[in-house]
Amino acid sequence: MRKYFSKEKWSYMFYTITHPMDGYYWIRHADRGSVPLAILMVVLFSACFTANRLLASFVVNDLDPRGVDSLYELLGVLAFYLLLCVSNWSITCLMNGEGRMKDIAIAVGYGTVPITIVLAAATVISQFVADDEQAFYTLLIAVGIAYGVIMILIGIMQVHNYTLGKTLLTLFLTFVALLIIIFLILLLTNLLGMVFNFFRSIYTEIIFRT
Amino acid sequence: MKRMNIMRIKKIMRSCGAFLLAGLVLATAAPLRAEASSLPYQSYNYTYREDIVYTPAPYEPLKTVSGQDLTLDGEPIGPFVSPQDLCKSPTGDIYIADTGNNRIVVVDSTVSHVRRIITTFDNNGTEDAFKQPYGVAVSETNQLYVADSQNHRVVVLNEDGTLARIVENPQAEVLDAGFVFVPLKVSVDYADRVYCIAQNMFEGIMVFETNGEFTGFFGTISVDISLWEKFWRKIATKEERSNSQLFIPTEFTGIDIDPDGFVYASNIDANGLQGVRRLNPRGEDVIKKGVSGNLGGDLQIDGTTDYAGPSQFTDVVYRENGIYSCLDRRRGRIFTYDHEGNLLYIFGGMGSQSGTFQMPVAVENIGSDMVVLDANNANITFFKETEYGRLINQAVGLRYDGDEAEAVALWQRVLELDENNELANTGIGKAYLTAGDYEQAMKYLKLGMARDYYSVAYKRYRNDMLTQNANLFLTVIIVLVIAWVVWRQVSKRKGITLFKKKQKVRRGGGLNA
Q1: Phi, psi dihedral angles at B259 (to 5 degrees)
Q2: Is B415:B427 a contact under the CB 8 Å cutoff?
Q3: Which CATH superfamily, name and number, covers B39-61+250-385?
């Protein structure tokens, strides 16, 4: 455990955030990243996302707090993270990507860190904002999200050793693959449910036959 | 052991107490609940989040009056037949358009005595009568305007029953050649201009000058076709296009005119977004919409039954202090809004009990009572203001006049009857805001979900905090700066480091790891 969360891993994560090109390159080629740390970052992102929705001040927050469920959102974010990594991996495997599954997981996980930081900061700042200063708050979050997206983009690009154009193409295909995976999962659960129902009806038939 | 026993006894006693308390609460609550359910309808309102909250009844049924209850000089006047409109005169009398009986019945303000029945009038020497009089209105000079629908005219009678003038046969190029003028609802402003809603007239309200000349349409509702619909029409063939539904604007259903000459007109909106308009003298809609942006009655309208769907406002009445009420013919409810477009309260419903309707067609306010005319039941229902309704009406009136501070006591009482009432919380919050108690203002404005006012209160609160604690802030900052400078000097001289010097992250780590 210590290996995954060592001080070196932490500091290298922050190095990656400030130097994404170089950082991601050595994550792929010298194993400087840590998958558990990346997953922790995704969990933190989910927590900050929910916290922002729940705790941002009344002036900027128009959400119904009853509609926010932190556990549900955590599961959603983790499921999306998993799907994204799997679909990206399956596409890049076919398209000469050099990245391994763990590299993709780290690239996406580290990419969420700027968004997490900005969301946490914005939640605090929102407590001191009046209506006409709302633009700052919105801008801050927008910048954070933009940084995060760019980081993920660079991460994918570097771990697979792609050009920018090819990265964008694979990302598009990744989303197609994601939809296909979701479709297959739905299909599978539906069919499994039918099989289950079949055996259950046989069971009830036998039970009532006596 | 002994101690255990005492504990147990205490526990039992406590639970007994809880039971007793619960019983007491139930006992006191029970009659209240019974009282609330004795009304034939539920009163409710929508919160900021568009949830339904049940409120105390703002109005409760007082009495119903039908034609059988009334006599004129000892003679019964007989039941109304499909009455379509009623209005009040400046003297307080009520005029009822008894459409099916081709007569106008004039009663006093309590609808207990019939003043007179108008069936005929002297039209330049010949006796003339009404045919399906559909709408009535009384001007400030006490002239009676009757929308004589099947005679295609608006008849104007003086107070003594003599004919003043007849408005008929409107002439204008904008009207089709075969246009038949069938006036349904009529209203008149301070300059004796006649506003008339005619059958199958989608262009708007027809306006006639004092001399009876048709001057044009008023308050035309524009049709907005979405981009998507435009696209489909573009690619449709001519045949398909002619088969598809026409985009016609909605018809107006009822009018009322406020003392300033603004026309309140109800209309049926298929989307349930805006069922009432306030038209300025140029015919532009200047109504204010509240936070929800909705003036269409019910907000929760999902469903596939006849009972579901958007409210259909069939009549509107301007009351006072900017308050107006709209009558929904689909679910028989009366929606009351204030001048800012906030929904104040909702009451009424469909049914066969006293206080509910089969086919409500007209609404009017008489004194503090609300009066609804039902065409199917052929009767008039009076609703009496309750304490809850009175408090809201008065408080909104005070706010309309700008006396926010005076309204606080009323709003406080409203909160006692209906806690979490957003209007009341906002009202109290705004009063605190003007009084300068920003902390309290923030508390109440947040409960009232008044975001913009909350922001104003917060901004002032923040300024207060900063100016009051400016000395403290500055002192702390100066002390910190001095401490830092001193620390740097000292540490440099003695070579102390607080943190271990950061190891520079190895660039290209893999090579030199």
Answers
A1: -60, -25
A2: no
A3: TolB, C-terminal domain (2.120.10.30)
> What pLDDT does residue A166 have?
94
Q: Does B459 touch chain A (CB under 8 A)?
A: yes
Instruction: Give the DSSP letter of residue B250.
Output: P
pLDDT at B500: 56
Q: Are B167 and B156 in contact (CB under 8 A)?
A: yes
The reply to whether B70-219 shares the fold of B39-61+250-385 is yes
Residue B416 to residue B438: CA distance in whole angstroms? 23
Q: Say whether A30 and B459 touch across the interface (CB within 8 A).
A: no
Distance, in Å, from the CA atom of B323 to the CA atom of B315, rounded to the nearest integer, reads: 14
Chain B positions in Cβ-Cβ contact with residue A132 (cut-off 8 Å): 455
Q: Which residues numbered 58-117 in A keep a CB inside 8 Å of some CB on B? A: 58-59, 62, 64
- Token pair 């052929």 in the structure block, residue: B378
Stretches in chain B below the pLDDT threshold 50: 1-2, 16, 19-21, 23-36, 509-513
Where exactly are the structural domains of chain B?
A: 39-61+250-385, 70-219, 403-495
3-state SS string over B473-507? HHHHHHHHHHHHHHHHHHHHHHCCCCCCCCCCCCC
Task: Identify the band that residue A112 occupies on the pLDDT scale cut at 50, 70 and 90.
Answer: very high
pLDDT attached to residue B498: 60
Q: At A184, which amino acid appears?
A: L
Identify the H or E element spanning B127.
Answer: strand B126-129
Is the Cβ–Cβ distance between B114 and B77 less than 8 Å? yes
CB-based burial of residue B127 (10 Å sphere; 0-12 exposed, 13-18 middle, 19+ buried)?
exposed
The chain-wide mean pLDDT, for chain A, equals 94
Query: What is the third-level CATH fold of B70-219?
Result: Neuraminidase (2.120.10)
Q: Which helix (H) or strand (E) holds A12?
A: helix A7-18
The CATH architecture to which B403-495 belongs is Alpha Horseshoe (1.25)
- Complex prediction ipTM: 0.81
pTM of the model: 0.82
Q: Which residues are CB-neighbours of A5 under 8 A, at least 6 positions away? A: A34, A36, A37, A40
Domain boundaries, chain A: 7-209
